């Protein structure tokens, strides 16, 4: 809402400056603070009332029945608006911009219009272009703004304001520093929350970047990679309405991670989103076993894409003469004609090509039957009435018009309507369908892949890049699918194509998308993207052939079996050189005291990158306690209890080597006990590392230790075996 600003009194800004400096608050400054809070409370009350009014109006609109397609589409749009407003409970209003021209605009979770449809909005949606200066304006580049105000609320009550003059009288490294640091110091709940009120400029730049091609975002621990990824989804769905018709796919590294972020996008009112891991992308297919890192690396290589294409291609029928029987007569389709038919469907998925060829075969058989009839009719004209009688008996049909004789009743030749009817009967004939199935059988993706990967001869033929030892390792795996099999199975399913497209289910586009393997998304966002194998990247491209992809991750936290150490290596097979790089350089989550430990660990991991720069200090030095192996479980239990007491109301997590997880689970039933890989993307107020040297001794272990060190927001403890 645009209105005149009260900037000229300047008192609220002075109050904020005094509070931050730690100086005593004067009565005048306290009065100004209360006045500012009361002013924002009045606005929040009006915004809440307007939101409630719009919710009631939309609810009434949605109670009517949809009578046609257009009405159903309108109701879907209204339901999405209703959901956005209904969920906008917390932080409905969180910011304000005071312009140099004296106008005021408030910024919030959703946009709210005034009763006057043509007037200025009451509340700006945080994604709207006019709201961008809230995240990007600085004293050096005020972008037409005189002041930025962060409004802190609890429920529907304003509890504080933080003002930032943008005239150079006060500078801060961070946008909304007070609000940001207050948010970072809050206890962790085990679920991520929206961060729209505290986004920083480098984060906002990535959130609003163009979505025309692959964007690869490098960010170290605590830089807000996941925040950026999720808020980018919300921004894109707001800025590109057509994208909502296709939905956005969010890929995370694990079900635990998806549970952690599950509340963010619904809280922002977004329903056109499908969340999954690479292991859960295929409907009704689940991973049934673990596998070695060696096999995961072998089956993650890009070579499998060409191998599978060649394998499925070898299963297409070869040109030969086809002889079909129709009503007691045999009809031959020459090999040359069959070759032309097969050439016309080249490049299509197996089952789609099969369907197209079957349709052409029906046409060819129809033409052969008609041609033979015409030949017999011509012979009849030369005196072979007995032949015509036999043909008439064999071509009985029930499509004669009640209005009088037509078509073959008159001259013995079939009319166009009768030919169409004949073609339809051929297409529906069970014996013809059995012939097509024998010539071009329907295939099952799981059976097909299992037949390939368990056959050494086939592997040697279609994947000659594999060594004999690698072929043996693949061929002797047990039957249940492992994680690295899922991308191969997806590739086979894509090459085969659907036999029949599944019917749409559910009210929202996301319901349709998650049930269809071949759904094409408007955009894909990938978190922890450094973990994807080359074949998993192919899974992404199949779901977004436009390459409208945002991938965030930290190449230095890679734990997967593949061997890339740079983003260029990681995405070469998928994108070649056609991708844009971006970087998050500031660590907000992990305190400076902990980040100081990561430099030597990165060097041990072989990284040439510098860790992100931490901008906050917790005042708590990381501590180390040496413990005998026999006393590990008891000592860990005591340490966890102490951490839980110190961080009451928050969260504590334990990270340990894989071979110690079972022992610690038994002793620590009330806290998460995870490996470094499992902890990726998560955060706790306090983290306890068990046997850091044991973590570092594992495969890619220094990278794992780097992950483990950076999971806390306040306190880090380590139990070292001695």
TrEMBL record:
Keywords attached to this entry: ATP-binding, Helicase, Hydrolase, Nucleotide-binding
Gene3D superfamilies: P-loop containing nucleotide triphosphate hydrolases
Record: residues binding ATP: 219-226
Name this polypeptide is given: AAA family ATPase
Residue ranges of domain UvrD-like helicase ATP-binding in the record: 198-591
């Amino acid at each position: 809402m645009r209105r005149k600003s009260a900037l000229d009194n300047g008192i609220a800004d002075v109050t904020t400056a005094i509070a931050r400096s730690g100086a005593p608050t004067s009565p005048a400054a306290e009065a100004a603070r209360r006045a500012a809070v009361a002013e924002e409370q009045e606005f929040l009350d009006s915004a809440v009332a307007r939101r409630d009014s719009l919710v009631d109006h939309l609810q009434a609109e949605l109670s009517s029945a949809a009578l046609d397609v257009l009405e159903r589409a309108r109701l879907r749009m209204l339901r999405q608006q209703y959901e956005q407003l209904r969920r906008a409970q917390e932080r409905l209003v969180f910011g304000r911009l005071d312009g140099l021209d004296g106008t005021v605009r408030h910024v919030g979770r959703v946009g709210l219009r005034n009763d006057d449809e043509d007037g200025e909005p009451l509340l700006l949606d945080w994604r709207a272009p006019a709201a961008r200066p809230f995240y990007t304006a600085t004293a050096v580049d005020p972008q037409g703004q005189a002041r930025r105000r962060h409004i802190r609320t609890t429920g529907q009550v304003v509890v504080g304001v933080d003002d930032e003059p943008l005239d150079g009288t006060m500078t801060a490294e961070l946008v909304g520093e007070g609000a940001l640091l207050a948010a970072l110091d809050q206890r962790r709940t085990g679920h991520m929350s929206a961060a729209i009120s505290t986004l920083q400029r480098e984060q906002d730049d990535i959130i609003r970047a163009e979505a025309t091609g692959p964007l690869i975002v490098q960010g170290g621990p605590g830089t807000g990679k996941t925040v950026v990824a999720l808020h980018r989804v919300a921004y894109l769905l707001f800025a590109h309405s057509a994208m909502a018709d296709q939905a956005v796919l969010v890929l995370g590294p694990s079900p635990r991670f998806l549970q952690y972020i599950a509340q963010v996008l619904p809280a922002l009112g977004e329903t056109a989103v499908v969340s999954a891991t690479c292991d859960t992308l295929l409907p009704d297919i689940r991973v049934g076993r673990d596998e070695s890192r060696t096999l995961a690396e072998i089956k993650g290589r890009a070579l499998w894409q060409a191998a599978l294409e060649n394998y499925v291609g070898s299963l297409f029928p070869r040109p030969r003469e086809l002889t079909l029987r129709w009503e007691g007569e045999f009809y031959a389709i020459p090999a040359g004609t069959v070759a032309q038919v097969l050439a016309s469907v080249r490049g299509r998925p197996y089952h789609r090509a099969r369907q197209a060829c079957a349709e052409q075969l029906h046409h060819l058989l129809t033409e052969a039957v008609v041609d033979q009839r015409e030949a017999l009719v011509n012979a009849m004209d030369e005196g072979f009435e007995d032949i015509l009688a036999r043909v008439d008996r064999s071509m009985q049909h029930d499509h004669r018009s009640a209005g009088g004789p037509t078509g073959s009743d008159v001259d013995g030749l079939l009319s166009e309507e009768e030919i169409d009817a004949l073609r339809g009967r051929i297409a529906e004939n069970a014996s013809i369908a059995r012939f097509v199935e024998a010539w071009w059988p329907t295939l099952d993706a799981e059976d097909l892949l299992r037949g390939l990967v368990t056959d050494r001869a086939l592997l040697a033929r279609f994947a000659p890049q594999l060594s004999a030892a690698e072929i043996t390792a693949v061929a002797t795996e047990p039957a249940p699918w492992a994680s690295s099999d899922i991308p191969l199975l997806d590739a086979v399913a894509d090459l085969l194509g659907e036999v029949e497209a599944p019917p749409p289910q559910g009210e929202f586009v996301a319901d349709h998308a998650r049930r269809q393997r071949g759904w094409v998304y408007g955009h894909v966002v990938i978190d922890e993207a450094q973990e994807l194998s080359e074949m998993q990247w192919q899974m992404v491209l199949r779901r977004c052939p436009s390459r409208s992809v945002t991938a965030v991750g930290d190449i230095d936290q890679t734990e997967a079996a593949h061997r890339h150490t740079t983003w260029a290596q990681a995405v070469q097979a998928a994108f070649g050189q056609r991708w844009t790089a971006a970087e998050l350089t500031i660590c907000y989550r992990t305190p400076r005291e902990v980040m100081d430990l990561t430099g030597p660990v990165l060097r041990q991991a072989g990284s040439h990158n510098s860790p992100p720069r931490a901008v906050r200090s917790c005042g708590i030095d990381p501590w180390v306690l040496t413990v005998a192996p026999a006393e590990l479980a008891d000592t860990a239990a005591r340490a966890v209890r102490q951490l839980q007491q110190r961080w009451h109301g928050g969260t504590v997590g334990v990270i340990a080597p894989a071979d110690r997880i079972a022992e610690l689970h038994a002793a620590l039933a009330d806290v998460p006990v995870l490996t470094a890989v499992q902890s990726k993307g998560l955060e706790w107020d306090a983290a306890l590392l068990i046997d850091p040297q044991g973590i570092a001794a594992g495969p890619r272990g220094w990278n794992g230790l780097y992950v483990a060190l950076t999971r806390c927001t306040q306190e880090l403890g380590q139990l070292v075996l001695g």
